[in-house]
Amino acid sequence: MVNNPKALWDNCLSLIKDNVTEQQFRTWFAPIVFESYNEDSRTLLVQVPSMYVYEYLEQYYVGLLSKALTRCFGQNVQLTYRVVTDKQHGIAQVVEGDDPVNIEPQQPTVRGNKTPDVLDAVSDLNPQLDVHKTFQNFIEGASNKLPRTVGISIAEHPGKSTFNPFFVYGPSGCGKTHLVNAIGVRCKEMYPHKRVLYVSARLFQVQFTDAVRQNKVNEFIQFYQTIDVLIVDDIQEWATAVKTLDTFFHIFDHLFRLGKQIILASDRPPVDLQGVKDRLLTRFSCGLIAELEHPNVQLCIDILKAKCRRDGLKIPEDVIQFIAETANGSVRDLEGVVNSLMAYSIVYNSNIDMRLAERIIQRAVKVDNKPLTVDDILEKVCGHYKVPQQQIFSRSRKRDYVLVRQISMYLTQKYTKMPAGRIGQLIGGRDHSTVIHSCSAIEQRLKVDKAFLSELSSIENSFKLKK
Questions:
Q1: What pLDDT does 242 receive?
Q2: Residue 229 forms beta bridges with which residues?
Q3: Residues 161-204 pLDDT 10s
Q4: Are strands 288-291 and 43-48 parallel, antiparallel or unpaired?
Q5: pLDDT, tens digit, for every residue of 249-267?
Q6: How high is the pLDDT of residue 1?
């Protein structure tokens, strides 16, 4: 009879903690809350903070959980999760794990004077990986299909394919760091005893400089020569670091001869790495060179929708479309805009709409030919006629206000291509028929009033856009 199932669960966590990194345990296992254990049905119920955590545990740690539960609770234990879907209102749903835990007990083997745990210990090397950057949230599209497919193959068969070294390059914000992290995370999940290490080129250089200062260069090289999967990010930063490159050459050569996997990321292909000697360039190029391009609009939309599903966000379709079209094809910009939208929405208790998205894009995204927004147009038109914007949003029928309102609607339709209904909502909460009437009135006046045509042309020229 199980006297204290909570204590048994704590024992499970202790076993698990010995077999994952501190960061992995803190991210995936520490948030799990024990709820109950039914001895008759042999069902263990635990609470997890989100559906994402549940899916990640079931995909990557089900084997580890099974072994730990079998060790502590016995065989044929059904693990069930209570997933919190709405923290604010305390709403949750109960889901079962894929299969009941039914692992045959293993016989411990004696090594020296110690009898090891049923679960093998993992190397104490911290892989320095970001466990949130996985293949599950690296959305596939035309711009990344080859690198992503190759990355999965490498993660599942490190050092055993022709893709060694794997050199991935592309502009900032296209997902290079995410991809190489995902390779490391998947590899570590499949081969927990392999020594996987992610390091930025800058950190590597700092470590090397410290080693030189402390006269420990040999120890530095020997450490890196023990790595099974070495991931180095932003290697273009070594362009003028001759001694760092020479040292890395020896590390690279040693790992490559032993069949260890090497993954390199850069913002340019090997041929454009100025200052790197040919002996290294030829080695960088002897495996596979893959380019990551900026995601197209459709992939940006897919990425945004996936992030909304994962984080429980509600963003209107037209706002998602607008962000995807204006965020420079940068995944980093996409995430920054969405995070800013959520922050503004929460702090000011406002809905996420097109106007808020336009303001965020203006502040968060650097665009060479940034599209005009409703706010841009209102600012210019109201400034030209010296009319306060609040009067444009009011219900006043004063002739001057009506004219400025109509011009604003006309120019918004001309330069933003928004539907009439959306324009009306953003300019005083009018309906689409009011917008259509306003645009028609301005068009008719432009045909007969040359002075008005000249005046409107002056406003448009202030946009620095062609008619």
A1: 86
A2: 196, 261
A3: 678 899 999 887 788 899 999 999 999 888 888 899 999 988 99
A4: unpaired
A5: 889 988 988 889 999 999 8
A6: 43
Instruction: State pLDDT tens for residues 107-160.
Output: 333 333 332 333 333 346 788 888 888 888 888 887 888 889 999 989 988 887
334 Cα distance to chain centroid: 9
DSSP-derived 3-state class of residue 350: coil
State phi, psi for 170 to the nearest 5 degrees: 170, 170
Across residues 94-107, what is the average pLDDT? 44
Beta carbons within 10 angstroms of residue 87's beta carbon: 11
Instruction: Report d(CA 71, CA 11) in Å as an integer.
Output: 9
- Helix ranges (H only) for 123-264 are 145-156, 176-190, 201-213, 217-224, 242-257
Name which of 415, 418, 446 is nearest 432 in CA terms. 418
96 has pLDDT over 70: no
User: Residue 342: beta bridge partners?
Assistant: none
Residue 343: CB partners within 8 Å, gap ≥ 6?
none
Q: Is 231 helix (H, G, I), strand (E, B) or coil?
A: strand
Q: Which two tokens stand for residue 454?
A: 């000249």
Q: What is the DSSP letter of 124?
A: S
**Beta bridge partner(s), residue 291:** 169
Question: What is the rounded distance in angstroms from the CA atom of residue 379 to the CA atom of residue 382?
Answer: 5
CB 117 within 8 A of CB 15: yes
For the chain, give the percent of residues with pLDDT over 70: 85
Contact residues for 319 (Cβ-Cβ < 8 A; gap 6+): 341, 352, 353, 354, 357
Distance CA 162, CA 153 (A): 10
pLDDT at 227: 92
Other Cβ atoms less than 10 A from the Cβ of 223: the count is 16
Neighbours of 420 (CB within 10 A): 20
Q: Are the beta carbons of 171 and 101 closer than 8 angstroms?
A: no
Tokens representing 408 are 């604003």
Question: What's the pLDDT tens digit per position in 58-87?
Answer: 777 888 888 888 888 888 888 888 886 554
Specify the pLDDT at position 94: 63
What does the radius of gyration of the chain's CA atoms come to, in whole angstroms? 29
In angstroms, the CA 240 to CA 112 distance is: 50
Q: What is the largest CA-CA distance in the chain?
A: 101
**Residue located via tokens 């009879």:** 1
